Amino acid sequence: MLEKIFSVILCIISAIIIYSANNFDMSYIGDSGLGPDFFPKIVGFILIILSIFLFFSKDKTIQENKNIRYTLATIFIFAIYIFIIGKLGYLISTVLFSFSIMSLFKKNSILLKIIYSILFPLGLYLLFTYIFKVSLPTGIFI
Question: Among 10, 25, 35, 139, which residue has the least CB neighbours within 10 Å?
Answer without folding.
Answer: 25
